[in-house]
Structure formats: C-alpha cells, structure tokens
Amino acid sequence: MHAQPLLIQALVYLAAGVVSVPIAKRLGLGSVLGYLIAGLVVGPLAHVVGEQGDVMKFAEFGVVILLFLIGLEVRPTTLWEMRASIFGLGLAQLLASAAVVGAVALMLGADWRVAVASGLILAMSSTAIVLQNLEEKGLRQGPVGQAAFGVLLFQDLAVIPLFALLPLLAEGGAVGGGTAAPATVLDALPAWARILATLAAVAGVVIGGRYLTRPMFRFIAAARLREIFTASALLLVVAVAALMELVGLSPALGAFLAGVVLAESEFRRELETDIEPFRGLLLGLFFITVGASLNVGLVMAKPVLVIALTVGLMVMKAVAMWIVGLVFRHGRRDAATVAVSLAQGGEFAFVLITFVVGAHVMNREEAALATAVVALSMALTPLAFALYERFVLNRAASRDEPERLPFDDGAPDAIVAGFGRFGQIATRLLMANDFKVVLLDSSIEQIDLIRRFGWPVHYGDASRLDLLRAAGADKAKILMVAIDDKDKAIEMVKAATEYFPNLTILARAFDRRHAYELMSAGADELERETFESALAFGKKSLLRLGLSDRRAAKAVSLFREHDRALFKRLAPVYGQEENYIMAVRDSRDTMQKLLSAERRRGAAEEEGEADADRIEARAAAHEA
Q: Can you tell me the mean pLDDT for 579-588?
C-alpha cells in the first residue's frame, strides 16, 4: 500500500524535471533553478505530491555522491595545497558571516542565544547548488571553484563541533528533551569513547580505501561484469556514508574522504564513469525536493518579512565573503564571484534548525521562519548568479561574441589553445606539414583580427572540458597549450591530463617556475616562451663580438643542454625556496666553468686550425 504513493511521487518528480529543466536551460536560467521551480510547482503550488520527508532523505544521497566524485578529483597533495582555502578562507567566512547575521538578528530584537544560533546556522552554504552552478558556468576548476570548494569543505567540517556547541545556548546550558543530540549508537558512550570511535572510523576509511579497495576492485573487474562493478562502487559510497553517520559525522564528508583516498587508484576513472549518472539524477531530485519543501503559506502570510530577510541574508553573506576574499588576496572579480555563489543558506541548515528546536534554543515559529528563508535563498541563488553573470561578470566582454564556427568531422591531429604570437608560429609549422589542426582562442579582439586573414579560429575558453571534447580532444594526438594566462594554462593542463589521457600535452611556459608548475600538472613537453629566442639573440651578440659561427653555435648548444639537464635535476627541490636557490647558484658556477673551458678549447682549436692554414699556405707558396 505504501509503494504506490512513493512510485507516484517518483513519477511526478521525474516528469517535472524532464519538462522544467530544458525550458529553464533554454531561458538561460540553468538546470538548478529549473529543478527548484519544478519542485515549487508540484509541491506547495499544485499539491501534486505530499510530504517530502522520505524522498528528501533519499535525495540527499545525491550530495554524498557529489562529494565522493569531487574527492576522486582531489589528490591528497592537492588537498594539502588547499589548506589555506579550507582552514583560512573557510574559517574566516564562517566567522564573518555568523557575526554579521547574528548582529542583525540582535538589532531586530532576537534573544542573544537565538542570534548566535541563527548566525552560525545561516553562515552555512549549499554544497550542491554552489558546485553545480559553478560546474555549469565552467568555473569549478579555476581559482573561483577552488576557493568556493575550500569554504564549503570547511563548513562540512564545522558541522561536527556545531552539534556540540549549539545545545549549550539553551537557557541555563541544559539540553532538554530527547532530541537535543544527534541520534547515533555512540550517544550512550562517554565523550572520550565517542572521540576514539570517530577517529577509528576516519582511520578505517583511509586505511581501507588505500589497502583493501584495490584488491576488491581487481577481483570484481576480473569478472568482467559492468553492472557488478557499478554496484560495488555504489556499495563503497553507501558503506562509507553509513559508517560516518553511525559515528555522528557528515556522510558527505566521509564520502569526500573516501574519494580523496581513491584519487590515485587505477580504478578512479572507472568509478567516476559508473557513479556519474546517479549523481546527476539524485542531485536533480534533491533540488526538486528543496523547491517542494518551501513553506509557501508562511511566505504568503508574511511576504514582506520573508523576502526582506532572504534578500538581507544573501546580501550580508555576499558582502562578508567578498571582504574576506579581498583580505585573502583574491582579485576583486574572483572574490565577488565566490561571494555571490555562497550567498544562500545550506542543506545542513535544515538539520541544524531541527536540532536547535529540540535543544530548546529556538521556538517553532522562529525555526519555521528560518527554514523558509534558507529554502527561498537556495531557490534564488541560481537567478542571482545569472543576473550577476550578465551584468557584472561579463561586463568587460561587452562586445558581441564572434560567430561560432562548427567543428569539422573527423579526428584532428592537434588542438592549439591560444592563437597569439606564440601559437601562430607553431600552428603554421604543423599545417605546412599537412597536419589537421583545430584552433581555439578566448580573445574576441584576437579572433576578429585573425579571421580577417582567413584563419578558422574557434571562440571559447579551452580550459572547459565541453569545448575540448567538442574540438575532438578524445581523438586528437596532441594538445598545444599556448595561451598567455599562467593560471588558466595550469588549469587546462590538469583538466586535459585528467579527462583525456590519450593526449600528449605540450605547454608554453612563461618562465622556469611556471614550467615546473605545468610539469607537476601533467604536461609532457614544455617550452619557455623566451628561451630559444633569447639563445638566438645571444648567438647574434657573440658573432658581433668576434666569435666564429662554429664557436657561437657550440656555446649556444652547450648552454641549452646544460640548462635542460639542470631543469630536470632541480625539479625535486622546486618549492623548497632555500634549497632551490642554493642549487641554482651552484649550477650557475658550474655552467660558467663549463663555458669558460669550452671557450678556451674552442680558441685553442681555432688557433691550431689557423696555424695549420698558415703552414699549408707556406707549403703551397714554396711549391709554386
């Protein structure tokens, strides 16, 4: 009897998503807003579906899968490199947002306990909405995506201490009722035992992911049954999520940790491919349930109050995050983009609001108002970002985009990203030898100029996976990264290395440091843009100073060989500033000695050749 209503709910949700999302995408609103509108229509407006409780719990698993897939893209070394974004930017955002929201709540007459709880809860942002939105805009792999992800990851970590802190805000510091603590099997244990159990669970995920999953997946892969491998991947995610929930941690955080542990596994791509369809489907269902859970009755009863609080929350969080971004030395535009992305309430807010009601920190009326504000802010975020993108983010590119050229059928030999002064020369060399080349560039001015000379340059950001895929990256032999943006070049090399293992990547480096960064990102071949031209310039100088062509060419060749050998030898100490500087100074002295010895040897050889010539000339004269 209970299966039929759930089946009908699934039918309604799927139909609503299939109808609304394409319409929203066509209108330029994005898929997230399409799902939210669909949920709003089938839920509180049309009352086609009933309570979303069971469906919401199932749909929240989409967030767990999302974090697992993100973890697969983040190697442990990358996570360590992001520590400033996670523990610096993330902590600053949480404190700044909580302080601003709490202060405004106090000004509006709220009790200080409610103000503190509201500030901490509403400082959270929606992982699912933010990452999906940035993914659609092609921003998740760059500095904006890294900063936003660092903040979101810290928020997930912060949920754990919040469960311990928020009950202390109850009057008298006492926790009343039976619902004031997360219901886990460890609740009856003393505090030290709960901490040990939590650490043991995390250690189990790390150790098991590193040493047990690989033999398991090898055994399953040997059976050559795709559906069993997919089931095993889902089993892994569900098991980790269940273990984390058992000890009172965030299931999404546990899934992310499992993904990080498996990021260097040979099965990473297979896991990613198998689980990806479930992520999209469950996230869509999650967004629909968020839209369906909006309390339209409360909004209609107090429209001015709810809308004012929602817009106020989004503005306060955006301003706080923007200031924090500037303090952490992000550019104005990047800081603003991150701020707009994180301006909404988050999924954990629903859990924490219910939690503080049980702890007698908030009453039910305050909780209902906070829940409505969070849900409405989540629904408005895609629209707010679309407006920001249109009127702020793209204002610098106010000129009309170039005409989109269709990509030719067939597999290209090479894809050239960046058709400026550097990329043009390399491209002409390839095309002169009858290789098929696809040209990509993101500069409107450059494309307008180059197309006048007959070059079929395609417009777009070549770091976007969809553009690379459309250009034929999965069939091409090489990718030549010749763009003049350092960070974008590293981002592009990382993405191409991850998703197109067939490509040999040749990258243009600005200098030695940039070359090391590109090499660590996965580039196969590197060329510093001024290195060879500087050597040619130096050779001409040597010729003008009186060296013979042979000696000048020998000096240039020796310098090139020594420098390239030095580049490889110093790679392990790059990033260790003092060791790197000392190694460079030692190698410079070595190079000076080698060049001096070569100069003396060359001079002696030329002198010997001159003497031989003089002897031969005298002999010829004597014979004459």
A: 66
Element (H, E) at 23: helix 3-26
Domains, the chain, with CATH or none: 55-173+191-392 (1.20.1530.20), 403-529 (3.40.50.720), 543-624 (no CATH)
Identity at 108, one-letter amino acid code: L
User: 604, 494, 611, 602: which is closest to 548 by C-alpha?
Assistant: 602
Taking the CA atoms of residue 506, residue 507, residue 512 and residue 514 in that order, the dihedral angle to the nearest 10 degrees is -140
- Residue 528 three-state SS: strand
The Cα 94–Cα 615 span in angstroms is: 87
Residue pLDDT, tens place only, 216-231: 878 887 777 777 877 8
Question: Dihedral sign, CA of 237, 238, 244, 249?
Answer: positive
pLDDT tens for each residue of 471-520:
888 889 999 998 888 878 888 898 888 888 889 999 988 887 788 888 88
In degrees and rounded to multiples of 5, residue 505 shows phi and psi of -105, 120
Q: Which residues are 508's β-sheet partners?
A: 527
Q: How far apart are CA 200 and CA 424, in angstroms?
A: 57
Q: Are 544 and 524 in contact (CB under 8 A)?
A: no
The CA distance from 535 to 515, in Å, is 18
pTM for this predicted structure = 0.57
Give 345-374 as a DSSP string. Answer: --HHHHHHHHHHHHTTSS-HHHHHHHHHHH
- DSSP letters, 543-560, are HHTT--HHHHHHHHHHHH
Tokens of 544: 């003008």
Q: How many residues does the chain have?
A: 624
